[in-house]
Amino acid sequence: MSVDALPAMTRPVETAMTPEPRTSGAEWWRSAVIYQIYPRSFADASGDGIGDLAGITERLPSLAGLGVDAVWLSPFFRSPQKDAGYDVSDYCDVDPIFGTLADFDALRDRARELGLRVIVDLVPNHSSDQHAWFQEALAAGPGSAERDRYMFRAGKGENGELPPNNWQSVFGGDAWTRVTEADGSAGEWYLHIFDSSQPDFNWKNPIVWEEFRRVLRFWLDRGVDGFRVDVAHGLMKQEGLPDIAEAAASDSISDALMSPESVPYWAQPAVHEVYRDWHRVLADYEGDRVLCAEAWVEPLAKAALWVRPDEMHQAFNFSYLGTPWQAEKLRSVIDESIAAFTGVGAPSTWVLSNHDVVRHASRYGLLPKTAVPNAGIGPSSNDKPDAALGLRRARAASALMLSLPGSAYLYQGEELGLPEVIELDDHVREDPTFHRTGGESYGRDGCRVPIPWEADAPAFGFNTTGGSWLPQPAEFADYARDRQEGVAGSTLELYRAALASRSERDLGLGSLQWLEGFDDDVIAFRNGTVTVIANLGAVPVELPEGKILLASGPLDGPVLPTDTTVWIAA
Ligand code: NOJ
To answer: Could you tell me the pTM of the whole model?
Structure first.
């Protein structure tokens, strides 16, 4: 039987031309725990209510003390902040709201002193409409070399009054905006898969390739250890920009994100050439530099194409993030992840929260056990999380995640058990998703509220002035770092103990063997010298003998209560 005759699901995935592995197998990123800093909301040294680089530098010792290996900084580049910095107007400068290049250098130096690596965010799918190139494109007019750096097209209809195709923005509404030409006439349309302030680059144009090599080198020369690559599945668009098939167009935004086959702007095979090129750029530098793909691609076997030996090094495991708190589903996604990523010589990654999704301490408190609510949660959502249940499960889920072999990503505040902020007034919301859907999607502001450091300080220690670009709820006092520091049983101390044990026992470089003899609702495996048991069922589980290294919640003698994870010395 030929490959084409097989049903799509059973066809072998495309493999590279047997590239030589260009990594040694001992790189730091294979097992690293990487902490995501969302600069707007981490720490604000200037006191203007928006976090900044100097604030991060001051607080870095707390991350070294937590035991993470690296930090990933979401964008701090020059930007009008229409999408919180994912709309970049100058890739090689720091936005004044975050500081200066000198502040970045100081951050990098401090991180090095503390033994922390630094990863920055690269946004290659689109720029800001305030980027010099886009402004030049607007001025230069149709057919110009300047327009060819973006995706300009004539409209359909008698007078070009209709968008060139039916693509929808991920944030809601059309993915095309019509420009007014210099002579005042209604002109061409430009593509923006995200907000209209984020025009997509034309990656068929070699000048765009050159420009991004320059950007990579700029930051590599400045000593960064790697890049998290935004929308890494989106750069190339299908030839001819065909309409999305009817069925896919009627899907929800989240479905569109997850169905590359039916969406002509996701996961086009040509995108891989870009990462082979970048792999070569990184290989020119000393040390183990890393590229991590933000590619919302399923199934995992397909996401693994981004981390073939001559492409990127890591890809976020969004399948894991999207898996509900159910033992059977978690077991399969863990198996699938390890098989897919190790199949191409890459480590699996694990992640539960980031700046785009409802925090897992709230997600897991939703009933029934739902997956990621992409629309966010707000005051009028029907399903509101049970905070205590969510936190108990989140702690169990994090203890489970941190015991897995591979590399794990943490999102700022999850080590405090922070929940999503639900009660935000419409007028303070900034996420373009909220505005472009007319409020139908609450969007992502709820996971981006500045984090609490000291319970009794102004803005909970985020700064000294009390300002905060999104209001912090009073309940943040209970989660503040200083209320948890050194307190046995606190979420902060749970994370600290998990990271210490993980590192001491090399769990990130280990391998997983499932253990038999437990109920279906129980996840049980051994990783090296540690036995991990997570009880997701209603019935308490009798624990095997052994020294308890970590417990995500109180144990009942030798019995593991529901929604609790334990690590036992094997
Ligand atoms: C993914 C980023 O994580 C998200 O925050 C951003 O809005 C989009 N990419 C567009 O850059």
So the answer is: 0.94
